[in-house]
Amino acid sequence: xxxxxxxxxxxxxxxxxxxxxxxxxxxxxxxxYYINRFSENTLMGRMKAFTWHDVLDYVRNNFxxxxxxxxxxxxxxxxxxxxxxxxxxxxxxxxxxxxxxxxPIGYKIYLNKGNESIDDIPKGDFWDLTSx
Length: 132
Fold this sequence. Notes:
By secondary structure, the protein is α+β, with helices and mostly antiparallel strands. Helices cover 16% and strands 32% of the residues. Strands 5-6-7-3-4-8 form a 6-stranded mixed sheet, with helices on one face. Strands 1-2 form a two-stranded antiparallel sheet.
């Protein structure tokens, strides 16, 4: 979370920050799904990041086979999703046939609101976007 941007970053927008900005790393959980946001999902891993924007950018660029395709992205205070925009035909085929078990159509992302500390997370399936 960016608590306070420095004078150089503030004019660029809320997603910009540098080492002089006041920021706190947060823990995000990433789940994949194959039919729709409400269907069965699988924990992909955890991510340490400063902003939702950083997490969504990473998911878009690293988890989708074609990151330039059209994506639906919705981000709320404690929850976000990013998924491929599907035509009606493709959507109805997916709801009856889980034909692409290795190709999820989207990802749900939750902000950690529990007591789990970032330092206590096992390092497998963990991405740290704060170390550069």
